[in-house]
Task: structure prediction
Amino acid sequence: MAKPATQRPTLPSVGRLGLVEPPARADLDRLGWKTDAHVELLWSLSRAPNADSALRAMVRIADALGGDWDELNRALVKDRSLRGRLFAVLGSSLALGDHLVAHPKSWHLLAGKVTLPSAEQLRREFAAVAESATDARSIQSSLRILYRDRILVLAALDVAPTVENEPVLPFATVGEHLADLADAALGAALIVATRTVCGDDTPPLRLAVIAMGKCGARELNYVSDVDVIFVAGSAADTNLTVATRVAGEMMRLGSETFFEVDAALRPEGKRGELVRTLESHVAYYERWAKTWEFQALLKARPAVGDAELGAQYMAALNPMVWTACEREDFVPEVQAMRRRVEELVPAGVRARELKLGTGGLRDVEFAVQLLQLVHGRNDDSLHVLSTVDALAALGEGGYVGRDDAANMTASYEFLRLLEHRLQLQRLKRTHMLPEAEDEEAMRWLARASHMRPDGQHDALGVLREELKRQSMRVSRLHAKLFYQPLLESVVGAGVELTASLTPQAAERQLAALGYEGPQSALTHLAALTGSRGRRGRVQQVLLPTLLDWLSDTPDPDAGLLAYRRLSEELSEQRWFLATLRDEGAVAKRLMRVLGTSAFVPDLLLRAPEVIQQYADGPQGPKLLETEPESMAKALVASAGRHADPVRAIMAARTLRRRELARIASADLLGMLEVTDVCKALTSVWVAVLQAALDAVVRANTPPSGQPARIAVIGMGRLGGGELGYGSDADVMFVCEPVDGVDESVAVKWSVTIAEQVRARLGTPSADPPLEVDANLRPEGRNGPLVRTLASYEAYYAQWAQGWEIQALLRAHRVAGDPDLGERFLVMIDKTRYPAGGVSAEAVQEIRRIKARVDAERLPRGADPNTHTKLGRGGLADIEWTVQLMQLRHAHRVQSLRGTSTLETLDAIGAAELIAEGDIDLLRQAWLTATRARNALVLVRGKPTDQLPGPGRQLNAVALAAGWHNDDGGEFLDNYLRVTRRAKTVVRKVFGA
Result:
């Protein structure tokens, strides 16, 4: 006999409903949701963003309702819209669930046909409550309940589509209603505050409350500070003391009852008067206001209080807003604001920050407001408050592409939606996404934001993909908003335009973005995009992003010119534009280098292959993959393949050029420490000297063989391994006849070799100069260019002067015959490190010469405080201090017998000859001055020792020197502080 078919249960299990908490089954039974009549209700519950939270809240609400629970239960079975609103809001907001538990009858607000009240209705509703009671505590409680009830209704309508097929509230509607609700709440707070301070019989004050920020723009968040400014009537018709007390009481009441009321955007911020007359406001903005204060006024709107006074305030200040971009400090202030915003966000949470992170809400708002400020003076259609309205107006006016405006609006509304959902959960102010590993929190956010599976991903996967896409889109569009219309204003005929800036508007926009020569910049853009072929199309795609990166550099004008020159030079090299298109890191790094340095672009024009090293390899930046030692060997070997010394030195120059471009690029991009830069530059110079010496010797060696051995001794910074970009090569040449050769013949031949090395390396070229300076030899310029080892020994034994002994402290073999070089160093040790130390007279002579140098050597017109070499606490001060200690103590302290200033300074500290604190001051001064001196060459493209005054060039030097931003003022203050402290130590050591 066949078994009867098992009837499938109609009630879904807790598992199928997505309920995972253990009490779920008991809670459903407790609510009575266990009959066939509750099937649809249960499936509605399952669609709540967090079904367990919604069920827990329903149990608590049932308990709170007691005997009235049946009414709600019956309504939930019958009213699909009520289910959608209630379950959605309880599954989205723990805080609103608590509110319903505390005030369970408020569920009626969600039943039946629910609409949002108008702004006027809200004002009347809140005003009625404010005026109805006399007890301050009961008024505050009643207003808080009313405000939460109204938030509840809005939130329920907003999130209901996640559960049932309810209408979707447009983003703009949500923000506008929240602002209307804030206005009504502020109005109620003003009524209560006025009555509290003034009593019932006092004539009404002339006090206007101006809404700022998101409230002013009517795009408010669920939870946000409400920014306000208070404006009082003239002193004749308003008591400012009373008005200030009313404003203070209103802020207190509003902050305790509704939301934080913040008046920090008022003139002078929190230090300024809370309430000012209209005349005082106008005077402040005319004389003292910063650019950010005018930017804040873009969203100003009279909210409550004296409407006539509010209108007068707007009429007085609006004209100032739209001329703010003409202010002299507009561009640097805008750039500083942008930097401050970026610096506010710790790097570890930047990817989670919806507001301040890269590609976040602030990026959109900042871009839109800047474009409004730039073009709003000439176009009244841009005088709108909300970001969305401003984007639409910018698109309509041709200031941004219409598609770009639409895409940016969609991304902005998506990010604001996530922000709203995060804030609703606990009614707390937040802009932070959950940790990526917190799948439960991210899954809730996905469901609350109405993410739906797409066939490839579940709701959480869809959210993660959308977050990546939107963040990338905002970052990309941020650049396009500024620059795509500029490009389209200069491209040739035949290109379809989506926006059309007039030449004047294009120039205004470029000027506001930091370009001091906007007409020239437009010419460069026209040249770059003018090609009808592939190059022109690729440039049009690349340039919005490249220009955006350039605008963040100290000199975008020079950077754009350099980029044009590179593009034209490499026009036939397909890899160039392809690399910039496909390797974002390469393009970004290149723009930073071009917009900062005059030194590197010229090198890249002749060694463009280095640009490919701007990419990252498996082990990190490719710019760091070259070892100086291997480069030096390759340079010498490359030159050695040519018999002709001219061609050999040309080969050496080619590799030197490439290596200089690599080192300088890595330096500018913050990849190398200053000590590594100096070592690498020294390695290049040593290799070039060796290659040149080898080439000249090969070309001048007679058939009978080389008549002499010759060695090159490095002096100064070359000998110390601490060369900078602008350093010459200080050298001495020493020779020794080979067996059987007369000394005069050997010396004559060696002089020919030395002269040719100097001449061939010093031949003018487009590369940075290769000057070989032999002026530190015995007798200076008047002495023979080359001496034998015996001649040097005799001279130093009998004639060595104090400065010559001091110069020998940094002598080191760098090229030529290694054995001869080593024997020279051993020979001079008895001169520079004599037994018993140098005489007291020699030390005194060094001190005398130092005093003379301080008094006479500084170039005419140089600032002694900021001359990196000879100025106060500069390189010469530190070097002379170290050398004085060597002269006095190196005969007995072996560790002081080094040629590097920095290493010897550390040895002095280790030997406790100078206090460790003083050693640290000297070390920091040497590093600071060396960075600054190198940065000066990188920025200006030629050797110089004098720091410039405040301005664009100093900002560039700061950035090139590795300062944490391009604020030249901060950098200069630090330089002056460090060198001043070092000079104190120098004076102590020299006994001055």
Observations:
- The first strand starts at residue 207 and ends at 211.
